[in-house]
Design a protein that fits this description.
Chain lengths: 264, 271
Amino acid sequence: MSNIQFHAGGLAIEVRGLKVTLGDTQVLRGVDFHVPKGRIVALIGPNGSGKTTLLRCLLGLQTPGAGEIRLFGEKLCPALLRRVGYVPQRLSLDRSFVLSVREFLALKLRETRGWFWQPHRVTDAAMKATLEEFDVVRLLDRPIAGLSGGQLQRVLIAFSLLGNPELLLLDEPTAGVDTPGEHSFYELITEVHRRHRLTVVLVSHDLSMVFRHASRVYALNGVICCEGTPEEVMSADSLKQAYGIHVTPYHHDHSPGHQHLHVQ
Amino acid sequence: MFSEPYMQRALWTAVLLAPLCGLLGVFVTARRMSFFSDTVAHSALAGVAAGLWLGMPDPTWAMLFVSLLVAGLILWLKERTQLLSDTIMALLMSTFMALGVTGFSLLKGFRGELHRYLFGDILSVGSGDVWVAGGVAAVVGVVVFRLLNPLTLLTVQEDLAHVAGIPVRRLNYVFVVLLTAVVALSIRLLGIILVTSLLVIPPATARNLARNFRQHLALSVLGGLVGGIGGVAASYQFDLPCGPTIVLTCAALFILSLPVAQLRRPRPEPQ
């Protein structure tokens, strides 16, 4: 692996020999994965390749059978997660759960933890910068269970950034978002990355969006099959290593002006 | 009506436990745990039978012990087996209910007691029950409001709660213990069959009226309180069984809230 150049700036994530077995299946078979600080990187791979499992290991939600995970040079521990923001794929909320966007965001900050007793203006003032940055002020009174996919993703990013993380992990963040929404979502991530100088790890199926916005791509299929710049990984040979020998990349249109790259 | 000592005891128990059921019920319904509370309530029958068989004049502690045991077994089997939660709960509920009914059939002279525990009886609330209810109400109320943020985030999504530094497993256990204690103690008033209704109906009524989670919690507590007091009063006034009367009062409030829910149906908003 060509990681020596990144060590100088420091690594946000360092994974060595990670192995995870779920049931009878060895999902991760010795993953080595290094992410330099301050980059947007993408983790791609077919269904069942272990992308979500790797992400869960990074978040301490899954205990690996073997291997080591370091974040910011330190061995993974619950205290380190304070420096991590996480945007899940979706929230499985029942519509009967009437938590408003304001109340949801207030769960994150220490100064808004008294939201139950606090007047709204106090809660809003504590979160003002984030509310304006992500344009969620007009959504504050809406229940989160009733938001559209795109609105929910914006709220989830605002939530994760309220803790001022240094590393943002996004798990299939545009699942359930329409194509224009997907486009503006990735623009937003790029903007967030630039403004907050974050390290961003995107787990995604949508190769064209990932290739447009990530500076480095890792293709996973039980192990990291290939890594490099988007141009390097997009070569058919590299993708075949990750997706199997019958894979060829192809483009197709979802709507005018939004061409997508998929594999078949 | 409330000059009678037994009515005062029943009323105090209702005032202490019914709002608590409303408060916990918001989380129970959002976390789809009503079958869990049904399971620990039904299993308490085995505790009642065991308490009476051991010669305890008041089987409250035996009931509480068995309910907590069953709650622990549900969590343990969920973690250690591949069985679905529904299967585990149905299995334990029927087994412990059968143990309770069999235990009662072996006891002589307690047939009337079975009916009291199944459907609730204001006459069966002793002064000790009121003190225990008061203690539990104070502890559960303080703990829930102290843990309101982590508990709410846990309800939104366990993974998000974990990343936010919340000890998810420990908090789940705390919630289960609080819920089980409240369910077991409410059986005196509501009965085994109906106790879950107080965890479900006031939150459902509140949901019809609330615009946010703060209102949902407050209105659910209020709904539990009104249903509890109204039910106990109606039970005395019309000489009706206590548990069903409380449930019917809560159900009447729910029906009254339906037109408001219709008026508040969300209209499509611009994206």
